[in-house]
Every structure is written in C-alpha cells, then in structure tokens.
Specification:
Elements lengths: L9 H19 L6 E7 H9 L2 H4 L4 E8 L7 H11 L4 E5 L13 H6 L4 E3 L3 H10 L4 E8 L4 H14 L4 E7 L3 H8 L8 E4 L1 H7 L5 H7 L3 E3 L4 H16 L5 E3 L11 H10 E3 L2 E4 L3 E4 L3 E3 L8 H5 L18 H5 L31 H15 L1
Parallel strand pairs: 1-2, 1-7, 3-4, 3-5, 5-6, 7-8, 8-9
Antiparallel strand pairs: 10-13, 11-12
Helix pairs in contact: 1-11, 2-15, 7-12
Family: Belongs to the HypD family.
InterPro entries: Hyd_form_HypD, HypD_1, HypD_2_sf
Organism: Rhodobacter calidifons
C-alpha cells in the first residue's frame, strides 16, 4: 500500500460494485431475501457509512452490524465499577478517551471527574505507567479495555511494571476476545447470518486461524478485511463468491497487514500475563464463556480487581440497561440504530443513553455522523 488513494479509486470501486451486483443477482435468484453479511468490527461499520457503501451496494446485500466495539459491549456494571475505583481517595484513574462518556447506572467517568475524581485520559497504558513512576504516593489505575488489538500493550505494561517493582500501578482488566461472541451469535436461532467480514486489526494480532470454526462448524464464509472502501467491497465480493460456489472458508483480503498466524511477540505477552475468565458479561449478549481475560496470579499485584476488592473478585452482579435503550439489540445486529425508539430523541451524542452513541466505533455514532439524518428524514 503506497497511497490510501489506491484503495479509494472510484473506477476500481465501480468495477467491484458491478461484480457484487452480478453475484448478488445470481444468488438472489435462489432465495427470497438479501444476503446478510455481518461486519464484526466497529471500524468497518464506520468505513461503510463514511464512504456510503451502504447506499452503493446492491440491494441483494444487507450489512448487519456486529459487536465489534469493545467500549460498546461493556456492561453498565463495569462502568459503575470504574467509577467506584476512581472515586476512592488517593487514586488516579486513567482511561482511553472513548470510555470517558460511556454512561454507567449512576454516572459516567466524565461525570465522576466533574465531581472531583482524579480521572485522566491517556493514549497508551505506557502513559499510565509513566504517571505511576512520577506519582509514588498515589495509586494509578489503568482501565484495560479492548479486544486482542489493545491487549498486548496492556500486557507489556504489566510486565514492565513487574520488572521495575512498581507497587502503585494496576490494571482494571476488561480485555475481551472476538471469536467467542461470534459463536454466541451463530448459536442464536433468531440471527440470520450468511457470512462475515472479519476484523482487520484484531486479526493482525491473532491471525486467521481462530476463525476456522466459523467455516468448519457452521458452514459460513468469513473474509478478514481492511478498512478502505475497495478493501470492504472486495471482501463482500469474496464472501458472495464463496456462497455462490457453495463453500465456506476463512480468507484473508487484508494480507498486506494480517499474517496467517498473527504476531508471535504479542501472543507471547498475552499468554504470559492473562488467562481466560470462566465467563464475562457482554452488553446485549449476556454472559459468554471464556470470552474475557483476567490477570494471572503471578501478576496479581497489578490486578485492580484484587487490589481494590471489586468486580468479579467479589462475585459482582449485573445491572439492568436503561429502560427504552436498545443497545443490546443494535449491538447484536437485530435492530438498526434508527430503529431504536431513543435514537436522536432521548439518545444523542450530547446526551447519550448508551455506549453505541459515544464510542468512535459505535454503530449509533456511525449512523448519527454519516447516515442518521438521512434515514431519520426518510
């Protein structure tokens, strides 16, 4: 990839759209509904609407937005626990900016900050680590959040803290994994899914083989995709081609970035620092077995749940969603954002009810920014 413009070429895009239309017409002759393709990653959702692919794609293809926004799938109870830690005396709570405005049952981190809690936005866990070095009299907690994309950086920071013997640094671990919720969706009898656009950044870390079960056990094609418009269009065409040929496989459209077996250094750090939780709660999906990571006992000194006696360490309970908020249904692709009765009314970027409206990868934020006004007016 020399220039981004190579992957935004309108001539190439039109050729791909024409090929998709021909393939979709051929498939549609044998069925009475569109082909449902779920883009798992929230970054892909934003690209689809940013470049208008939802309007350009053939009517025989329908994009289904998946649970690939790590901030969005975090249940309200975990936000409440972040606030509880942040409001304790002597704590500096650090977080990525996306999580600041996500509403909990009581308040958001931003509201807690306005109330006096020492909460700082950082760009990396290494920023939090440096803050701990410079603030030996304070407890610095990093909100470890994200899929396999961000998991290695948190693991490497914990390893570094252990090497330095820092006793005032810990991580509130909410790292989660992609394959397990896909399985949960495939096991849901109410979901109609014909294929998947696989996440590019996650796959850069884990490779393509963790998705083998999708094709092997469920007979669904999945294509790992890049984020430019021709990346996504080519990936849709690859999914349709598999369906037309009656086969299911894991294919890698994003081979310029994603290695087959992932990143060995990152995977080694993950294996050293984390182990699987027996289960983890997901917004809209409930408890999913082995879908979350926790810090191993050898690094327990850096586990905020253990240090502060909070969360799964104390047998936590779920918190119900705000009444009228359809985040769960939107998160699992059962509703479009504009089908939520609160979209653009009780829930806006300025006054969000749910995380999907505030996260940079949230489906509701994508609709609001790129498509909401058009669809609401329609």
């Amino acid at each position: 990839m020399k220039f981004a413009s190579e992957f935004r070429d309108p001539v190439a895009a039109r050729a791909l759209l024409s090929a998709i239309a021909r393939k979709a017409d051929a498939i549609g002759a044998a069925r009475a509904r569109p082909v449902h393709i779920m883009e798992i990653c929230g970054g892909h959702t934003h690209s689809i609407f940013r470049y208008g692919l939802d309007r350009l794609i053939h009517e025989g293809v329908e994009f289904v937005h998946g649970p690939g926004c790590p901030v969005c799938v975090l249940p309200m109870a975990r936000v409440d626990e972040c606030v509880e830690i942040a409001e304790r005396p002597g704590v500096i709570f650090t977080t990525f900016g996306d999580a600041m405005r996500v509403p909990g049952h009581r308040k958001s981190l931003l509201q807690a900050k306005s109330g006096g809690a020492d909460i700082l936005m950082v760009y990396s866990p290494l920023d939090a680590l440096e803050l701990a070095r410079r603030s030996p009299g304070r407890e610095v907690v990093f909100f470890g959040l994200g899929f396999e994309t961000t998991t290695p950086s948190t693991a490497l920071s914990i390893q570094q803290a252990a090497r330095e013997g820092l006793t005032n640094f810990s991580v509130f671990c909410n790292h989660i994994t992609v394959p397990e919720p896909i399985k949960a969706l495939l096991d849901d009898p109410d979901m109609v899914l014909d294929g998947f656009i696989g996440p590019g950044h996650v796959s850069m870390v884990i490779g393509t083989h963790p998705y083998d079960f999708i094709a092997r056990d469920y007979g669904k094609p999945i294509v790992v995709a890049g984020f430019e418009p021709t990346d996504l269009l080519q990936s849709v065409l690859m999914v349709l081609t598999q369906i037309a040929e009656g086969r299911a496989a894991v294919e890698n459209q994003y081979a310029r970035v994603v290695p087959e077996y992932g990143n060995s250094v990152s995977l080694a750090a993950i294996a050293d620092v984390y182990e699987r939780r027996p289960s983890f709660e997901w917004r809209g999906l409930g408890e999913i077995d082995a879908s979350g990571l926790r810090i191993r006992a050898k690094y327990a000194a850096f586990d905020a749940e253990e240090k502060f006696g909070i969360g799964y360490a104390t047998g936590r309970r779920s918190v119900p969603e705000i009444e009228g908020c359809a985040c769960g249904a939107v998160m699992t692709g059962k509703l479009k954002p504009t089908q939520c009765p609160q979209f653009g009314k009780g829930c806006t970027p300025d006054m969000p009810l749910g995380a999907l409206m505030v996260s940079s990868e949230g489906a509701c934020a994508a609709y609001w920014q790129y498509a909401g006004a058009r669809e609401t007016a329609a």
